[in-house]
Design brief:
Layout: H1 7-19, H2 27-34, H3 45-68, H4 78-87, H5 98-101, H6 106-118, H7 128-147, H8 152-175, H9 178-193, H10 195-200, H11 205-221, H12 234-245
Helix pairs in contact: 1-3, 1-6, 4-6, 7-8, 7-11, 8-9, 8-11, 9-11
Length: 250
């Protein structure tokens, strides 16, 4: 199937990977591999997996909502949603994968594929290459901060901002462009609180680079800034930040 950039397409892709995971793998390791949870304290891994499963549950709700608009008989696709619900229960973090893989029958995956092909794409794809380049820009900025002489409070502000964007990069495969909208929502209060420092150091390479990175993240957010529960259009939100900070480009 051509890759579908919608909630069901993301569910189909992730659960399809779970179904192909080797026999004796426990679910914790399977989720870590499929959700690309890398270097993390093993004690924290279950909490990060639970957070991402919660995001997937939201995607399932969105897929259901979109299918209800199509007026198809639920008998055609309900087995896919039922399988997803079984896998996305929080208890599925533990135990052997065989206990859960039985839900991911060819019929269930085919039903999810049908849903993905039926509901509209909600965004243009951000390619793995684009995400990797964004991460590389963040890595270069982090190196610049570490070797630079900005005040510690300004460094801390930038570190917090890029950590938020990095989390969006990691969550993109789960929720799509909404990851960048969520990141922007989270970052905006901190931007407002630090507006004086940002203005004072606006001409530094570090602040300018942070602005460039945010411009790109907002671009990748695409329709997530314009539709759904978001209260303002992307233009209005960006204009607000420009007035606050003076470092984002229009």
């Amino acid at each position: 199937m051509e890759k579908k950039n919608n909630s069901a397409g993301r569910l189909w892709g992730i659960l399809g990977q779970i179904s192909k995971t080797g026999g004796n793998t426990n679910m914790l390791k399977a989720w870590m591999a499929v959700l690309r949870i890398g270097n993390i304290d093993q004690k924290k891994a279950p909490f990060e997996i639970a957070r991402k499963i919660d995001l997937l549950q939201d995607e399932l709700i969105e897929a259901r909502r979109e299918m209800q608009k199509k007026h198809y008989s639920e008998d055609i696709y309900s087995v896919g949603f039922e399988a997803a619900e079984a896998i996305l229960q929080m208890g599925a973090i533990y135990g052997n994968i065989d206990s859960y893989r039985n839900h991911l029958t060819p019929e269930a995956l085919k039903a999810l594929k049908f849903v993905a092909e039926t509901i509209p794409d909600d965004e243009d794809e951000v390619t793995p290459e684009q995400l990797s380049e964004l991460q590389a820009e963040i890595d270069r900025l982090r190196e610049k901060i570490e070797s630079g002489d900005l005040p510690s409070n300004v460094k801390l502000f930038i570190y917090k901002q890029i950590a938020i964007i990095e989390n969006a990069i990691r969550d993109y495969s789960i929720v799509g462009a909404k990851a960048f909208k969520t990141a922007f929502d989270e970052a905006l209060p901190d931007i407002a609180m630090n507006k004086e420092d940002i203005a004072e150091y606006a001409e530094t390479e570090e602040i300018k680079t942070l602005g460039t990175i945010w411009d790109k993240a907002i671009q990748y957010g695409g329709n997530a800034f314009k539709y759904g529960s978001y209260a303002a259009t992307a233009v209005k939100v960006i204009e607000t930040v420009i007035k606050i900070t003076g470092y984002l480009n229009p």
